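Allow me, if you will, to draw on your knowledge of protein folds for a short while. I have a record of one protein: its chain in single-letter code and its fold written as discrete structure tokens. The full record is reproduced below for your convenience:
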Amino acid sequence: VLFISHPDYAKALLGRGDPKPDFAYNFVVPWIGNGLLVLSGQKWFQHRRLLTPAFHYDILKPYVKLVSDCTNIMLDKWEKLISNGNSVELFEHVSLMTLDTIMKSAFSYESNCQTNRDNSYIKAVYELSYLTDFRQRCFPYHNDFIFYFSPHGFRFRKACKIAHHHTETVIQKRKEFLKREKESEKIQKKRHLDFLDILLCSRDENGKELSDADLRAEVDTFMFEGHDTTASGVSWILYSMAKYPEHQEKCRQEIKEIVGDRNTIEWDDLNKMTYTTMCIKESLRMYPPVPGIDRKST
């Protein structure tokens, strides 16, 4: 095993196209399937090319208000929780906020997960996140036979079934919606296309669409990676701001000057937040949500 940290070495290694090691990703494959996180080689390039339109500025712009609305729900909860002077464990609330955001923006799905924790799919996502991490840290569970016959393995299979059923239901309902010609035209004229719309409408150079298995894998991958790492990054940024209040105050003043009398941030405001952006990037440098990337040397 060789650990590197210099960007020049990383650029050389990541540019070689070496495959991803099985060990690093095998534990999440039963849940998220063979999506972008797991794929490598030509199939990775094919899927990446199909998903590129989902990250175009015109697609992302309408999400600013949506993210703001989800954040306000979280902040309203915090105001109630701190009213008696108690401290609040932030990560749980930030994680629910990012999950709420990704489900609304990527799948147009109203989960109400920030206010209603009884949703079976939300519970399954959190169960799978915990069990995947726990399995990596428990050496005997690296063996499939031991893990799947254990109580934790039973919980993992049950949560997978719930998550996959939900994903398949969402995909099938959207497919039926798109099959109707009139409804398909409405989709194209929607206020904004979401991630699932783009997945279902995308075709490769041969006109071939993604298979049902590939669709589910990309949706589950996006759901997991889209909320978990973001929640970690946001939580560490808040920690960094609290640790260095002088920088927090500079960011506050910068945002107040930009926003003015408005109570929400707009797309055009983002490029003006130069100091805040530097602080965010520095926090991500010191506390990266994904501190390592694995490759198998060939």
Notes: The mean pLDDT is 86. DSSP finds 15 helices and no strands in the chain. Residues 212-243 form the longest helix (32 residues). Residues 124 and 251 are 37 Å apart (CA to CA).
